Amino acid sequence: SPQQFVVLLTVNPANQSITFPNPGDRLVNATATLSATASSGLPVAYSVVSGPATLSSNVVSFTGVGSVTIQASQAGNANYNAATPSNVTFQVRAAPAIVPPATVNFLATYAGTSPAPQVAAIGNPGWAACSWSNSFVYGGAASGWLAVTPSFGDVPALGVSNVTLSVSIAGLNAGVHYATNTIASAAATNSPQSFV
Fold it and tell me: pLDDT for 70-81, tens place per residue?
């Protein structure tokens, strides 16, 4: 006597988990802010698993359209085990764009009747609607012979918006007359677009 013995206490690292909300589908000209959290409170790291995307901290930018998968991870520390990585997948869609009609041709005879109006479509291959406005400039001395209605409007996502073009040949001499129409949209990535 006396006798000694040692008491050992082992504290194992705790497990942790990641909650990673999906940011949802995005347009190619937008960004997404990622907001994954670890139950440990430790910071989360992100990486691009696949798809046309680049990362800057927790902000994703896109280099094209398609499916994007982002992974959130947390490596752990002395008190927490590494978390099981968590992935989210979402779609990157085309942004609004203006697709003007092809050249619109009218044919008339001098001192005859004005030709029938023509309907032309303004297209939008993007996944969001956009507003547009139309203006035109005459290419020669003669003016006032063209009317485009409506002069502004909205074109839906993946849709078209129609305009009616009307001409009056009253007072026009024989020959080729032209006007350049310009369609502009603040939301379209390729604005403005023109057609004759």
Answer: 999 999 999 999
- Specify whether the CB–CB gap between 155 and 124 falls below 8 A: yes
How many CB atoms lie under 10 A from the CB of residue 18? 20
pLDDT tens digits, residue range 130-140?
Answer: 999 999 899 88
DSSP assignment of the chain = -----------PPBP--EE------EETTSEEE---EETT-PPPEEEEEESSEEEETTEEEESSSEEEEEEEE----SSBPPPPPEEEEEEEEPPP--B----------TTSPPPPPEEEEEEE-SSS-EEEEEEEEESSS--S-EEEE-SEEEE-TTEEEEEEEEE--TTPPSS---EEEEEE-SS-TT--EEE-
Q: What is the pLDDT of residue 5?
A: 87
Pairwise CA distance, residues 44 & 83, whole Å: 10
The region that residue 51 occupies, defined by phi over 0 for left and psi between -120 and 50 for alpha, beta otherwise, is: left
What is the C-alpha to C-alpha distance for residues 89 and 165, in angstroms, rounded to an integer? 45
- CA–CA separation, 167 and 29 (whole Å): 38
Give the chain's end-to-end CA distance (angstroms, integer).
Answer: 109
The answer, yes or no, to whether residue 101 has pLDDT greater than 90, is no
Structure tokens at 36: 């994954």
| Percent over 90 (pLDDT), the chain | 81
